[in-house]
Amino acid sequence: MRVFAAVLWLSCCMPLGAQVSYNRLLRADQEPQNWLTYSGSYKSWRYSSLDQIRTGNAKNLELKWIYQLDSTDKFEATPLVVDGVMYFSEPPSDVIAVDAKTGRAFWTYRDTLEGNVGVCCGRVNRGLAILGDTLFLAALDGNLVALDAKTGKEVWKTRVVDPSFGYSLTMAPLVVKDKVIIGPAGGEYGIRGFLAAFDAHTGKEVWRFHTIPGPGEAGSETWAGDAWQRGGGSVWLTGSYDPELNLIIQGVGNPSPDWNATVRPGDNLYSSSVIALDADTGKLKWHFQFVPHDAWDWDAMQIPVMVDAEWQGQQRKLLYWAHRDGVFYVLDRSNGKFLLGKPFLKVNWLAGFDENGRPQVQPNSLPTAEGTLIYPGVQGGTNWYSPSYSPRTGLFYLSVWADYYSVYQEGAADYIAGRRFNGGDIRQPLAFNRKTTLFPDEQQGYGALRAINPKTGEMAWQVKFADLTEGGVLSTAGDVVFTGNREGYFHAFDARDGKLLWKISLGGYIAAGPVSYSVDGKQYVAVAAGHGMFVFGLRE
Amino acid sequence: MRSSSVAVLLVASWAWAQAPTESLFNARVDPEQGRKLWSANCAVCHGPEGKGGRGPDLTSGKFRRGGTDDDLYRAMRNGIPGTEMPGFPLGGVESMQLLAYVRALGRAAMPPPRGGDAASGRELFSGSAECARCHRVGGMGSRIGPDLTDVGARMPPPDLLAVLLRPDERVLPAQWYVRAVTRDGRTITGRRLNEDTYSVQLIDAKEELVSLVKEELREYELIKKSPMPSYEGKLTREQLDDLVAYLASLKGTP
How many CB atoms lie within 10 A of CB A225? Predict the structure, then answer.
């Protein structure tokens, strides 16, 4: 028996070659030379405990290599790094394995997309997951694909959703135990969202939780008529996992149609909410709806950042959440209890919260045919851009779009399968996409890297940019915060006060989160920018 | 969903960028709605026709607190401190309709352009009106100001006249100017071509392409007014009509 236990321990816990066991994923923060999940660990801090690159020497960073894509689609992926090998997805749905030290390719996987895929926001993919020797790709065309990490060959492929109904897959999967967890994008197409678990060995579906409940299911009373059938609630960003609670913590997207809320009376659960599901069964344990009856497209597609800390004198399992609606929330992640809701930039829709954290919406905030001016605008105060939490500074770092508005117009909401189902339109003076001859006027809002004290929701510091920013954020034990912006700069800032330590112009839109890893004892920082993967290290 | 309707926004931003004659919100101008809003909110002080009363006359097209869209929008939304003018918390599109209406009141004092002589206008353009000193048409003239090769396709004659008479009313970000002073005391001015957090690129008065690093500057200023002088009183009515006729004939190179 003891021998058996020892063998079991060996097989489950020892890093055997490139085998990434579940136990390694559980303890990802104990092997900082690797980057094993989308957000770096199940806690989703996007924090590296490597400290070779520090505030004092970050000025000596230099480019080590670039991997250039064939694709000209927007590059939003976070790479994985496993024992010297970097894996990343190339949009729309290809996969590359390269030497993490030199950027030279071992293999490439070219996915043949099936059918015509309608996507609202670019043919993108945000990354991969790994378990054992297998990589998992949620491909744009609705297939979940398992690849041999050594060869790039397909192990299995499972059809998850049908793109002809507006569904697509863009998120990096989350692996928990022996399951691969994903959900579909398509909140602009009147889909019915879900989060589902697939057997990592066979690709067979194990459980599915509908983010929009059907008749008879709990929460269906928050819908009227058959609106639930096309109620949205997409899932396109990776959640977090708490192994002690055995809970998957996952954000859920906007209800459909986006801006015509009159055709879907009720709170519209579980849209624009965070849900906590039992990782084995997919059963709902608790939920918290940030925006009941959301009429502004403020989906909860943010990374759930899990921190154990004292809250008002009591040790608690906290969840930090800077939401698209412009509010920084702190919840108790064991039960979803609301602890703090504090706007982190200008909002004009919110009058306050009741004791359960239900927002009191200002009168006349709903979209109208004529148009309603609301702060924040439709891109939100922040969005899917990964935030970071540093246990050294205790600060929460994120990209914000501050103090800008959109005019939300309600319009017709006629559902046609596979077509856009927005129910209105948006106007705003702020340019959504970067043009060299079009600049945001600071009176109309600005983009910034922001540090928030999560104990109070107050701003600790910020760095304003001349343009808006969609960059994810990485913090490190060297007290350095890395982020890129859509001007194409990649920066290192002092995590304590936001002082600029180093920057480089990469010449292309940065809309991805950086990671850090090491090979042969040397620390690197990688970020997807423009149409290339860029890797930096210290000058030798 | 995500970047939520990128396509929709792209269209909105594009239209805003390309259509300076429309409002900030790119809303279709509805004179009837503007008139109603005027009657309900403004007429009591500024008079039913805008000729003034308790508040000033707004039909001259001149505004004491600044006449740009931004100035007018702010005055309407926030009021003017130290005066009896209160702020009006109108919806976004309502504000823009009202703004367009106030603009139209100002234009009422401006005679509409009559059919001028484009050939004479062309002579003025490269001659005494000195337009070609800054503007370029079909590859001729200066690159300092906006290229006017297709301005007649972009703007109707009344708007062309309005710009000649009141160039500061609406200056798009792409036409803003930079004034910078280097540490060694050199002053550089030019039209901004590009700008980011740390640097700015411009074309200067000698048509040189100049790139400046902001932290190396002693002063840095973005000039949102037009460097073009008003032609009011400088050209006769006939000359203005001729110039407008010429500009209106510029439809771009096929």
Answer: 10
Q: What are B75-89's pLDDT values in tens digits?
A: 887 788 888 888 877
Instruction: Give the C-alpha separation, B177 to B203, whole Å.
Output: 9
Helix (H) or strand (E) holding B203: strand B199-204
The arithmetic mean of pLDDT across residues A74-89, rounded, is 97
Q: For B70, which of A254, A299, A443 is closest by C-beta distance?
A: A443
Q: How far apart are CA A264 and CA A261, in angstroms?
A: 5
3-state class (DSSP) for residue B161: helix
> What are the respective helix, strand and coil percentages of chain B, to the nearest 5?
40, 15, 45
In the sheet that A480-484 helps form, which strands lie side by side, from edge to edge? A47-48, A473-476, A480-484, A489-494, A500-505
Token code pair at residue B137: 């048409």
State whether B93 and A371 contact (CB < 8 Å): yes
A375 close contact with B: CB closer than 8 A? no
Q: How far apart are CA A460 and CA A344, in angstroms?
A: 11
Q: What Rg value do the Cα atoms of chain A yield, rounded?
A: 22
Among B5, B7, B93, select the one facing A370 at the smallest CB separation.
B93
Half-sphere exposure of A509 (CA within 13 A, CB side): 15
Question: Given CB atoms, is B24 within the 8 Å cutoff of chain A?
Answer: yes
Nearest to B103 by CA among B66, B71, B59, B70: B59
Pairing between β-strand A473-476 and β-strand A47-48 as defined by DSSP bridges: parallel
Tell me, yes or no, if A120 comes closer than 8 A to chain B by beta carbon. yes
Strand partners of residue A191: none
Told to judge if A294 belongs to the known catalytic residues of this protein, a careful annotator would answer: no
Which pLDDT score is estimated for B91? Answer: 66
What confidence category does residue B202 fall into, taking pLDDT thresholds of 50, 70 and 90? very high
Contact B10/A at CB under 8 A: yes
Mean pLDDT score across all residues of chain A: 93
Q: Distance between CA B210 and CA A81 in Å, rounded?
A: 42
The per-residue pLDDT for range B35-48, each reduced to its tens digit, is 888 888 898 888 88
CA A321, chain centre distance (Å): 12
CATH 1.10.760.10 intervals, chain B: 6-108, 118-165+229-248
Q: What is the pLDDT of residue B29?
A: 64
**B26 pLDDT exceeds 80?**
no
Contact B2 A121 (CB under 8 A): yes
Q: Do A425 and B8 touch (CB under 8 A)?
A: yes
| B6-108 has CATH 1.10.760.10 classification | yes
Q: B81: Cβ–Cβ under 8 A, 6 or more apart, which residues?
A: none
Give yes or no for a contact between A492 and A397, defined as CB atoms under 8 angstroms apart. Answer: no
Q: Which of residues 480-509 of A touch B (CB under 8 A)?
A: 485, 487, 489, 503
Asked if A429 reaches chain B (Cβ–Cβ under 8 Å), the answer is yes
Which tokens belong to A527?
A: 């970020």
Just give the CATH number of B118-165+229-248. 1.10.760.10
Residue A531 CB neighbours (<10 A): 18
ipTM surpassing 0.90: no
Q: In which region does residue A186 sit, left (phi positive, over 0), alpha (psi from -120 to 50) or beta (all else)?
A: left
Q: Where in chain B is the domain with CATH 2.30.30.100?
A: 177-223
Q: What CATH number matches the domain at B177-223, 2.30.30.100, 1.10.357.160, 3.90.45.10, 1.10.1200.120?
A: 2.30.30.100
User: Which residues of B fall within a CB distance of 8 Å from A485?
Assistant: 197
Residue of A nearest to B92 (CA): A373
| Residue A116 in this model has a pLDDT that exceeds 90 | no
Chain B residue numbers with beta carbons less than 8 Å from the beta carbon of A409 are: 93
Q: What is the pTM of this model?
A: 0.84
**A489 three-state secondary structure:** strand
CA distances in angstroms from A26 to A334, A419, A481, B85, listed in the order given: 18, 41, 24, 63
